[in-house]
Amino acid sequence: MPVYYTPIPRNLRLGLAYASGSVFGNNRTGDSQEQNDNSGNISNEVVSHLPLQMLMYFNAFFFPFWWISEVFMLELKFDLLPRYYQCLLVAGMVLLTIFEGLRLYLGYVGNLKEKVPELAGFWLLSFLFQLPILLFFLTDEGILILPLERAVHSVYLVFVLSELLAAFLALRTVSRKLSLQFHLGQFRRAEDRQPPFATPVFGPAYGRTVLPVTPAKDIRA
Q1: In the Cβ-directed half-sphere of 89, how many Cα atoms lie within 13 Å?
Q2: What distance in Å separates the CA atoms of residue 88 and residue 84, rounded to the nearest whole number?
Q3: Could you tell me the pLDDT band of residue 210, with boundaries at 50, 70 and 90?
Q4: What does the pLDDT average to over 16-38?
Q5: pLDDT above 90: residue 64
Q6: Which of 4, 139, 172, 204 could form a disulfide with 109 if both were Cys (CB 3.0 to 4.6 A apart)?
Q7: CA 20, 22, 28 angle in degrees (round to 5)?
Q8: Contact by Cβ (8 Å): 157, 135
Q9: DSSP class of residue 197?
Q10: Rounded to whole angstroms, how far apart are CA atoms 163 and 141?
């Protein structure tokens, strides 16, 4: 199985995993019996989110066309914009380009390998960077939005919003699976620590009793 490098530092990965487990983890005990009955299939169950994987796949193909269109449109209107809008648009393009590659990589690794920190990083990058910048590109009329820009930005925004929803569902599923695996592991370790021939608390051990029993001959007498 290939090993994927993750750019997230270890401390940040632990923090993302803890936060995701706290938000998405399932702590209910009402269905514990059903979960224990299905424990044999949980460790081998694949919970990678197919819609999220498909969205990221098509997004990876769409992004180069979006980038070429945006560069072309920016070159057409660059001299007509004020200096601060020129700086904002260039900075937005650079940030979107950098974070898009990192975001898709974290999404691929997190979804295929079922890693909560990488999935959480993908969701945060989409929500904190891609979404605000795209909304700025679509809503600020001061940047002279051209028809082609409005079209490609709208398609890109649909991708990001759909990926946010799909990543949320994938995070919830993966977090619950890992939480259940952890509790089942604790339960198995507790069972392994018990002595193999434990004496029952109630009832006779090995068919014997400590209570006085009248001999059979006295009863017949």
Answers
A1: 27
A2: 6
A3: very low
A4: 48
A5: yes
A6: 4
A7: 125
A8: yes
A9: T
A10: 26
Q: Could you tell me the CA-to-CA distances from 123 to 80, 152, 173 in Å, in that order? A: 35, 22, 14
Instruction: Look at residue 157 and tell me whether its pLDDT is greater than 70.
Output: yes
Residue type present at position 197: F
Q: Token pair for residue 24?
A: 């998405």
DSSP summary character for residue 142: G
Phi and psi for 151 in degrees, rounded to 5? Answer: -70, -50
Q: Using the predicted structure, report yes or no on whether residue 19 has a pLDDT greater than 80.
A: no
Q: Which of 200, 217, 196, 218 is nearest to 209 (CA)?
A: 200
Query: Which residue is it, tokens 């009329």?
Result: 141
Q: Which residue has the tokens 């604790």?
A: 186
Give the pLDDT confidence of 130-139 residue by residue, as tens digits. Answer: 999 999 999 9
- The total number of residues shown for the chain amounts to 221
